Amino acid sequence: MINLSLYSCLKYGTMKVGKSNIFHRQNQATSKGCGMENTMRIGCVKEIKNNEFRVGLTPDNVKAYVNAGHTVYVEQDAGLGSGFTTEEYREAGAVIFEKAADVWKQCDMMVKVKEPLAEEYPLFHEGMILYTYLHLAADKPQMEALMAAKVKGVAYETLVETDGSLPLLAPMSQIAGRLSIQEGAKYLEKIYGGRGVLLAGVPGTPKGKVVILGGGSVGTNACKVAVGMGADVTVIDMNLKRLAYLDDIFGARIQTLYSTDAAIEKAMAEADLVVGCVLIPGKAAPKLIKRSYLKNMKPGSVIVDVAVDQGGCCETTKVTYHDDPIYTVDGVIHYCVGNMPGAVPRTATIALTNATLRYGLEIANKGLEKACQDNPVIYSAVNTYDGKCTCKNVTDSFGMEAHDIHNMF
Ligand SMILES: NC(=O)c1ccc[n+]([C@@H]2O[C@H](COP(=O)([O-])OP(=O)(O)OC[C@H]3O[C@@H](n4cnc5c(N)ncnc54)[C@H](O)[C@@H]3O)[C@@H](O)[C@H]2O)c1
User: Based on the domain organization, do 221 and 356 belong to the same domain?
Assistant: First the structure.
């Protein structure tokens, strides 16, 4: 795929004009002039969502795209929130633009983290690829804007690998799971209104009791950290195979329980920290923690409801944000932040881009259509194409006609 004469040509073009905001057409002409197909102008802008500090490309990612023959445009300071300086992007071969609007206008493929916000819709242009989390089922205006502009919307959250896994969602579940114990441990401290319990305890004191509702990706990662801290850990799940797996991995260091109302109510009453992380794909989270259970819980105990992005698994859950993450009901502290990985943007950006780079390069190197044909897994990520919505879960949730992406090119 890489044509060396083109590569040096592109590289030269980038270095020559890298500090200018008006060189891009010249640079594109240079790459076309070198006769290489499937080179793209890749864009990366600063996320504008409230308290979002992750970024779609790291400097190392930029290097990978540039080495594959692409041109990468990065908005100034796009990566600062994740600790990546503009100079690092420039050294990696990116061309720096002062304004996000210029990156949007000039790129063939925008690589982001979060869904675009309304003020970004006017920057869409026909045929551009938008590679990011889209969450269209919860955002009809965005879906309509992508369709109206004929943007090729490629959503991280719907890319399903051949084994059924969701590789572009997994890193965020891993982070949220590990963070849930860290945050829960913090709010157990007295100064935050917590019970004043150290999860690990010390010799001669009881260990803190952690109950994890749901032993999937989030639950397993919560379990790792809680066990590592030395807490007394119980995992509750309705999937016996999953419980058997956890039993194999963690052995006698955890207790596993089959999920029933009675088991949950009893475990809650004994818990210092409860992590809610159940999921029934495509559905609202089941409300496993009834309000009546809270009265039997220890005052100052903590519930971290990670499943809040699916409505939460506790009847008293309401969405909170990083700048004011907790509230108290019946003496029990609730932490219900919908974008937990946003608290650790450096780790989250590296983890996310480790997963997105591979598919992003496939799309850039081949064009979206050929990338799908060569690796059909990528079809599952295409949510909008040629003015149509091509994701059945999304069209179903809006009662719209579904269009099968496999028949569109
Ligand atoms: N708040 C955040 O920042 C954040 C970040 C990442 C993930 N999440 C959310 O966390 C939730 C869990 O994600 P995941 O990746 O671990 O999902 P997963 O599918 O890997 O695991 C979910 C688990 O819940 C279990 N479950 C389902 N119904 C149950 C019931 N009635 N009783 C007990 N267990 C039950 C399933 O058997 C499964 O093991 C999702 O809602 C996800 O969107 C939130």
Answer: no
Q: Are residues 93 and 189 in the same domain?
A: no
Closest residue to atom 34 of ligand 1, CA basis:
237
pLDDT at residue 328, rounded to an integer: 98
Q: Are residues 145 and 177 in the same domain?
A: no
Residues 6+ apart with CB under 8 A from 200: 207, 208, 229, 230, 231
pLDDT of residue 38: 83
- Please name the residue ranges forming H helices in 193-278: 217-229, 240-250, 261-270
Say whether both 139 and 179 belong to one domain. Answer: no
Q: What is the DSSP string of 45-114?
A: ----STT----S--HHHHHHHHHTT-EEEEETTTTGGGT--HHHHHHTTPEEES-HHHHHHH-SEEE-SS
Sequence-ordered alpha helix ranges (H) in 126-260: 140-148, 170-187, 217-229, 240-250
Task: Say if residue 265's pLDDT is above 90.
Answer: yes
pLDDT, tens digit (0-9, with 9 covering 90-100), for 134-180:
988 878 999 999 999 999 999 999 999 999 999 999 999 999 999 99
215 and 180 together in one domain: yes
Q: Based on the domain organization, do 312 and 352 belong to the same domain? A: no
CA–centroid distance, residue 160 to ligand 1 (Å): 16
Catalytic residue set:
135, 309
**160 falls within a domain:** no
What value does the mean pLDDT take over residues 117-121?
A: 97
Whether 197 and 319 map to the same domain: the answer is yes
Atom of ligand 1 nearest to the CA of 170: 15
Q: Do 284 and 366 fall within a single domain?
A: no
Work out which ligand 1 atom sits closest to the CA atom of 176: 5
User: Does residue 361 carry a pLDDT above 90?
Assistant: yes
**Domain assignment of residue 194, given as a range:** 170-343
pTM: 0.85
Q: How many angstroms separate the alpha carbon of residue 368 from the centre of ligand 1?
A: 31
